[in-house]
Task: structure prediction
Amino acid sequence: MTDLNNILKNVREDDFIEYFLFPNLSVISEAEEETFLSTLLEECNKIIQEIAKDHLWHKDKLELVCRSTNMNKLNNIDSENVRFPPHLYGVTHFGENIEDEWLIVYIIFELTKRISGLIGRVCDADGEFLLIEAAEYVPNWANPDTANQRVFLYEGKIHIIQPEFDEEVDSKIDVFEAVSIILKNSQKTEASTDVQNAIADRISVYPENIKRNLHTAKVYLPIGIAAILKYEPNLISPVVYSFCNRDTIDMKVCSAKKYFPPENRVYTNVVFTKCLYAMLTHSKFIPDRRTGWNLPNCNNKEFKSHNLGVKIACGFEILASQARPSQDLDSDRAWQNYLKSLRKKNYFGDLLEHSREYNNLMNKAKEHYIKNRDSMYYSPLIGQKILKLMKTLEYSIDDFKNAEKDLHEEEDDSWLNINPEELDEYLRERYGKKKTHSFNSSSDASKFSQKINSFLNHVSDINGAEFPNTESPVKPPRSKKSKETVTFTKGTTQTESGNKINFDADAFGSAIQNILNFGIPEDDNWDLESDSGMSDYEDDIFVKNNSIEESKTQMTTYMDEMDKELAQTTIGESFIKKNGENFEDVENFRPVDIDMNALKNILESYKSQLGEAGPSSNMLGPMGVYLDIQEDKS
Result:
């Protein structure tokens, strides 16, 4: 039942970030915990307000709550597998705006830097996403399984607790133990400089980026909405969100215009995040003319202001209409979304719908929802706030009319449109400029061929292939299930448990290389006269009726006939030939330049892709080869 309770509490969409702040409580008694945490919470909130005072949260805001030892027990936060020391905790849904997630990462870094002894941790639906950001530099043992709950923030830096390299290693470390290890051995747990720099580069745009991500627009709005947004500018986030996620029921509400009729409208400045502005701008909507919301011609310079205004007004109407939660949960869309999430988490298991056990779980879920819906991202609560502001706010239409002449000029929104060159520049800034290669000679083609062969000869395992010019990865710790590892050597191979495996690495490599080169192998293991070479074909009629020698003679005759046929065609002229080769036994013979022909075909394939993904780029990209196609075809 504990698991079911956790599902009820933790069910959420995938667009969330969870954050923990663990203070050093080694000298604090359990009786002093709650007082200490409350004081810490106030200090953290001051820093958060200082950093994010101008920020518009897209969906949920950053909000911390205290979790003392008693609260953890009361809320069943601790379990057999995970125990939490007293801490501050929060979870934020960031919706479509990933910038909110990284701003929170920056704030948690700042909190650990400014408050002595504070250890932070952040995770999202992908787990330890900080390691994903620094994937090129993380330790070789680290993967989603082994790195779980091993990444922390302390004194403004990333700390990674490495697992013990033995058979008893457990990927989930106790948080109590993890916090203690960092406090006692912070120098040993500090991540490498490359990892630190990768994350530091990602959050270096804050806090300056808060203002850069804002966009101010001139909007034509009903006077009531203009007054509310002037008093509570953060309401623009749920307004835009509700409008862009409207359904057919919401559309009926928009047509009614019960709360904000279009009769008294004024021009005013509204501040959006760029994400919200883009969402609202690209959400198509044409109001019913019978409602009085008549838009000017799209070529009119005021069209944008009117168009944005009607969309914002619809968002306010939707939220206001949801101000009073329905007593019938079946018609409550927020409940329906919550129920859908429970089913995704397999809350009901395989129980038959409307069975006694199923109904018991359903009633428990309804009780939890009704009790906690105000703490969720819940439209009725926002709608109630809007209706309250409508009744209590005092404003004058004359003041707004007079302020129209002093409005800020509308900001340029050309950033909504991005061309391919700008996208390439952004990718270069984000991921670094890729090394390109130009090939103009036979020697270059030979080097290119060698690079491919080098890549093919590199080590590959279930985790992927090594890239050329990189160090071999450190051998990861063996799991409890794998008691036996295999060491491949030339000739007979032996496992750590003593079992022998006959595996000739050279013969295997030769076979693969021959397949890739379309060549007839010279290796003894492929001798047609050997028993093993033809053992799989003993049932073939051709083999039964002919001896090995006869088979080889017939194959030679067949190849000669094929050469004669090809000699009468012009197919050979399509290949690039080598120069300077001297073959005295064959008149005017110039062998095919295999390297140049391979390079030519790959370049033509790459060029035909027009910069898009395709066979050539997909093959060369992982090898670290990026082509720069020249205009000349030399």
